[in-house]
Write the structure tokens for this entry.
Amino acid sequence: MGRGKSRQSVELIRAAREILEAIQPASVRAVCYQLFNQKLIASMAKSETNRVSTQLRDARERAMIPWSWIVDETREAWRRSSRPIGVTVGRTNPIESSSGARRAQSAARWRPSCTTTG
């Protein structure tokens, strides 16, 4: 069993919750900008935003912050693609592509002939 969160982590979560109460739903990056403006994180460096992200995840898992308050719009946009997985835009058949046509022609050249000798 862990020793619990440090005082600094608890304060960060408390501040993030206050920010999220006002602006939710918001991305982790938006929360980081607000924390940075309030001088509660040193910078917007990846190490700092990762630390905030980890604390927000832990707070959500412990039901300290509702899951719906934090959104990830980049992942949501990717999931909402109207194109089925594996479908290439602009081509209905992979053989129609120039490299596909070359492969088909090459394969035809090496097919054994069906002629019989008698």
